[in-house]
Specification:
Layout: H1 21-38, H2 44-49, H3 68-74, H4 79-96
């Protein structure tokens, strides 16, 4: 198995290797993170606030407004993904403290 990253961006040479996963994750997530913080993400609450759509309800669970808080912490449909994310973050934090 190669240590080379399987994700390549058009026109760019990927220098990511398996020993740098956190840096590469931050590289890819920076635009989405910024959009979430500025209220410019594809979440329905953000799109609704700019009148791009008429309904701000979560399409995954249809029970709440789909805002950043709901998406990351409360949506019942994403519960399994949330547990996986929290476990991985915990493992990364534990590895960095050793």
């Amino acid at each position: 198995m190669s240590n080379e990253c399987l994700i390549s961006l058009p026109g760019n040479t990927c220098t990511c290797t398996a020993d740098k996963p956190i840096a590469f994750f931050l590289y890819l997530s920076a635009p989405l993170h910024s959009h979430m913080r500025m209220g410019l993400s594809p979440l329905n609450a953000h799109r609704h606030s700019y009148n791009f759509i008429n309904n701000n309800v979560c399409l995954l669970c249809s029970t709440r407004i789909e805002n950043t808080f709901h998406y990351f912490l409360k949506c019942p449909t994403l519960a399994n993904q949330r547990v996986t994310l929290m476990n991985r973050v915990t493992n990364i934090l534990l590895m960095s403290n050793t």
